[in-house]
Design a protein that fits this description.
- Pfam families: Hpt.
- Helix content is about 75%, strand content about 0%.
- It is mainly alpha-helical and about 110 residues long.
- Helix 2 runs antiparallel to helix 5.
- The protein is built from five helices and no strands.
- The protein is elongated.
- The chain has one domain: Four Helix Bundle (Hemerythrin (Met), subunit A) (Up-down Bundle).
- The longest helix has 20 residues.
Length: about 110
């Protein structure tokens, strides 16, 4: 969390936000493990929603890089969910790479 935040209410929001990082990491790691297997069984809608929330909340709470990476990953997951070419190995690799970057940023935060 950025040091300039002094509001106790905002500090509580930031604490709740960061307390979810382990859960988010676990979800992303699970999806990455299974990405090249049973794509229809993956919780891609839930992952997209979680990434959307991260993208919108991270920067205002002092995590701009996490917000940018989550936004990029959200777009790639959305493309994967809605594309006829969902099984394209190039698209799967892009999604995997993007999710990996978000996971690493969550670990570093």
């Amino acid at each position: 969390m950025a040091e300039e935040m002094v509001s106790p209410a905002l500090a509580r929001v930031a604490a709740r936000f960061t307390s979810r990082f382990p859960k988010h990491r676990a979800m992303l790691e699970e999806v990455r493990r299974d990405l090249h297997g049973n794509l229809p069984d993956l919780p891609l809608k839930e992952v997209q929603s979680m990434l959307h929330d991260l993208a919108g909340t991270a920067a205002p709470l002092g995590y701009p890089e996490l917000g940018n990476l989550a936004s990029d990953a959200e777009g790639k997951v959305k493309t994967l969910r809605t594309s006829d070419a969902a099984m394209s190995s190039a698209l799967l690799q892009q999604v995997d790479d993007s999710l990996q970057r978000v996971t690493k940023e969550l670990e570093a935060s």
